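Q: Okay, next protein. This is Tryptophan--tRNA ligase from Paenibacillus ginsengarvi. I've checked the sequence twice, so it should be correct. Can you predict the 3D structure?
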Amino acid sequence: MTERVLTGDRVTGKLHLGHYVGSLKNRVALQEQYDTYVLLADVQALTTHFDKPDLIRSHLREVALDYLAIGINPDRATIFVQSMIPEIAELTVLFSMFVTVNVLRHNPTVKSESKHSGLDDMYYGFLGYPVSQAADITFCKASIVPVGDDQLPHLELARKIVRRFNELYKPVLVEPRALISEMPRLVGTDGNAKMSKSLGNSIELDSTTEEIAYKIKRATTDPARIRKNDPGHPDVCPIYAYHRAFRSSEVSEIREGCEKGTISCAACKALITSALEQLIEPTRERRAYYAARPDVVDDILLSGTRRARGIARETMEEVREAMSLDYF
Ligand code: ATP
Ligand code: MG
């Protein structure tokens, strides 16, 4: 059997360059070789946005358009809606029996995200979202999960859950592994370590030429470079990080020029602006095609979800049998 790939995104906002380098680029490549599943994580979006169901609703199709525009091919990959697979919720409940609260509390990604939320307590659903993610991965027996490095603790937990389940009951689940990209964490335009929807420091994949130019123009650079000829420190500059992520050639020249103060920040920004434009420009036509055909997009999501549901039912039957929950 071909190995299965699963990944997804919370539908809390449009996708950005961080998603692209962290995961989307790999997905587009992997779909050629593997049975690829892509999840629109609307339930997981609720863990932080339960009071904004309309936002999630509107972003569901927005993220689907991002996928299609960037090159996820609906003939090869299965794009589906998380909340329409109730077996994921069932599996989450069953897994939650043998995951302790302390393990979740000490998960570094959960910790840092909950710090950002500003709340001094955590919602039960939020604390448990890594368990629900383990269900997302295991319901379809995915073995490869292309993700950014913030997801590593979650993948580790998913692996533990699978091992525990298989040894407690019967070996029916598949242990997944993370596939971390060459650029596991893209910095934000404000210099924050992670470009993120929630931090407002992102460049969206549906940006216009003007938006790209504007955001790069406004982006933070090395604060030590005040005058053009001041020697710079590329490793603290988000623009240099973007050069590394999006330009295959001349990156060492940029480093040298920055360190010697022979290339100005403005010139450096102009180069990356045009590289980003080259990346995004070809996606605009595909985006426009699907944006003009909402019925086609709906069909893609419905048929993908149907396919995923079929697999979920099969796995759930095996799980019930393994756990002796198959009474009749
Ligand atoms: P939110 O702030 O709502 O959590 P997010 O920007 O973190 O949004 P997610 O939907 O949580 O996005 O993540 C989807 C996938 O994209 C994950 O695999 C994650 O690791 C990856 N990803 C997100 N942001 C980045 C980034 N800046 N660099 C690399 N990968 C990223
Ligand atoms: Mg996130």
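A: Here is a summary of the prediction. The first strand starts at residue 4 and ends at 10. The chain has two domains: 4-187+294-322, 207-287.
Q: Noted. On to the next one.
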